[in-house]
């Protein structure tokens, strides 16, 4: 079956809309990854189940923004106004939030008033931040801590207590209770140099909840996502060329004989979707950015 693949052009258009013109007009893997990180950092607008840690629940009256943010996450509203200027505005900066890259933990400002349509305020220096582990369909509000608590292992301990599946245990890596886990400050230095270190909690050793980062600071989960997209596209090309599509898709394609098969790509609720442009057939949808 003959087809026209316009997914690269469509992906370029999505990236240009967010990051501006491509350097030398060339779409590279690095640019794709930078864009994926930016989109994921913004927290895609999707309804989520929200779990509130006791440490956070105790501060709801002190910081009314906690309830506002919880409600926004539950209905899939835009939560970017609570994100920092650095996270929102440094769009092509891969290192805009290394805690997010490494641990998949986002931080939110707890101001109450909309200074502008896209910014919550006030944000006085030193005001505590809300730290949360946000996934595609759920969010765990973990703790309220001062600005700069980017490698505080206490936050991981709370995640382990609330959602053990999100903090995979590493067995046989370090002797239990060895005391070999780095300090928070040592973790900060390792992270800034592109390393992800396991952490020891209650005598057990755990991997980073977000699968860690590469030596170039890419979140491992984003590298997996980019590889998955390339692999699925290659398989789709083969299936089209060899007429090996599922029968129900072949029936939809045959229903409009004479129209070329045009592969397109779009972003829907944080998910990359590859579809047929002339017939509106969805070929596959990747998991949402997180």
Automatic annotation (TrEMBL):
Superkingdom in the source lineage: Bacteria
Protein's name in the database: Uncharacterized protein
